[in-house]
# Entry
Amino acid sequence: MVDSKKDDIKLSKGNFVNYNKGNIEKDYELKETLGSGAFAKVVKVIHKKSGQARALKIIKKQKDQDPARMYLEVEILKKLVHPNIMQIFEFFEDKKNFQIITELCDGGELFDMIVEKGNFNEDEASWVMKQLVSAVNYIHTNNICHRDIKPENILLDTKKDNVIKIIDWGTARFFDKNKKMNKISGTPYYIAPEVLFEKYDEKCDIWSCGIIMYILLCGYPPFNGENDSEILAKIKLGKFTFPDEEWEHVSDSAKDLIKKMLTFKPEERFSAGACLDHPWIKDNTKRKINPTLGKKCLNNMKKFHAGRKLQQAALTYIVNYLMTKEEKNEMLEMFQSLDKNGDGVLSKEEIYEGYRESLGDVEAKKEVERIMAEVDIDNSGTIDYNEFVMAATNRQKMLNKEKLEATFNMFDKDGSGTTSADEIKAVLCSRNENKKAVEDLIKEVDQNGDGEISLSEFKEMMKKLLQ
# Structure
């Protein structure tokens, strides 16, 4: 049984998102500029320790700027683990700039794909919308509102697939269900009418999603005009049509969902969860899973056991920072097939359904309890995408020499060749009272009793996961 003191150490992706002051080029090699604006630019970078390509967003500091807004964006990104939300790795700050390191999505903007295609067929559109609404459902469940959802803020993960990622969380905020938001935030074409009246809730994101769905299916927005004033005046009225020329071949089911998302009164508008449950999304987005891969994933989860917090921390770091996009995306279809309600996390019931057919009712229930205890590392009551990847991936592949050494170097901050209680605490703990728990963790692994963990002791601990 895991020691209660050690159990006090709560692990999440946020443990590993470092805040750094100083020169970013110590850790990253800067490559080509991917895009730029008045106050920000995005540069491709290579992480020197892992060799992985990432994106660096550089935001120039403004004289009247409140840095709290930037810190809030980072705090929000640290909390979000969803396959359709861009992942943050690190945050740098110097006298002139804020700099955020995120995953690199090189498939281009959804906006560019819309321009190129003109419009999407219903199968293509429903797959994009399922991913988008799943991410929105996830953030709303976590009391976060994006407030500027538009095709320019949706990237395609790679040029080869149609996995989307929501980016640009600069206008996002935590919300209180009992209070309305009042600051106008958003972009003409996509902004909800209630935002213009300065009294709104998280349903403004659903309106934006409805606008995107409309554009995907016909190639133009439902509220158009010669200038922003005209567009916003039409949005305030909220009346739109489906002109026959472009819409006569679009299904009634698709039109029905758009109407539910673009309902003028927010209290009558669909929630993200209701959108995911709508037949147009449910019936059009069923995917056949490779049965061999599915079986391997479920078997790997059955065998997963990482009782020590240090093992869990190392695995969390490997999944978040060292696995390639291809390695993680291989798991994505399996994750989505188990995620029946499409909310971006796996519940007990969904995991149970995944095992019931092969194990039977009683054994499946036992297995689910064990998996939740072992795999739900952040104690959220659900399995997020990174936790699933950690448990479902082939461990021989995940625990190779290069990944283990890179993970050890992450703990060994001063490069001494050993990692101390203070170094581990800096990564794992946010509260002072966890010092004793960290010392207990070290004792479990510290074979020579010197109070520190060497690379060989660390590797020995991780190899136990293969037994």
